[in-house]
Amino acid sequence: ALASVYRLIGRILLDMGKYDLAVRSLAKALYKAGQGDDRRELVRILGHTAEALYGQGQYDEAVEVCHKGLERAHQADGSHEMQRLVIDLTNTLGKVNLYREDYAQAREHFRSNSRLAEAGDWPAEKARALFNLGTIAVQQRDYGQAEEIFLRCLSFGHTTANVLVRASVLLNLAVIYQQ
After folding, report:
1. pLDDT, mean of residues 10-21
2. pTM of this structure
3. Res. 24 pLDDT band, cuts 50 70 90
4. How far apart are CA 144 and CA 102, in angstroms?
């Protein structure tokens, strides 16, 4: 239970952009989770830790934690929740590859997430995966493909829970149309 508390605190700090504090809280959560046998909680903690490390610019460490989390997730029960955690970990891997301009690897991670989101019927995750694929297209100056992808993101309408993704899609479309 204490691991969950530290994880929730870490998640709040992560959402606030307080990556250093998030990493510290998540390290405590990881320590406490290591004393139990709750694989889901451990994978949740690893996912948040990877994202916080990414936010700090510690890309190698983020990748390492993602791989640990994915390994644990694949050993677990295969539940819908575990699949969502796989999407989060894979998304972080994709963002690291995007930052490193390894577009082929980033694309593969985001396509994998798109397939998982489709299978799980998670429109918000599908939109997030598509948005990231659109971001790759923008980075590669393929504005036609980026526009097509971003318009597909909007087709999810208000079923897309992540308003930040929707707002980012609209902003990216405005930039593309300005080109």
Report:
1. 96
2. 0.90
3. very high
4. 21
The residue type found at 18 is: K
* Tokens representing residue 6 in the block: 């530290």
127-157 in b/e form (b: 16+ CB < 10 A) is bbbbbbbbbbbbeeeeeeebbebbebbeebe
Name which of 22, 29, 26, 27 is nearest 2 in CA terms. 29
Reduced to 3 states (helix: H, G, I; strand: E, B; else coil), residue 63 is: helix
Residue 156 vs residue 120, higher pLDDT: 120
Measuring CA to CA, how many Å separate 34 from each of 18, 59, 134, 175?
A: 24, 23, 38, 46
Query: Cα 149 vs. chain centroid, distance in angstroms?
Result: 18
Instruction: Tell me which H or E stretch contains 46.
Output: helix 39-56
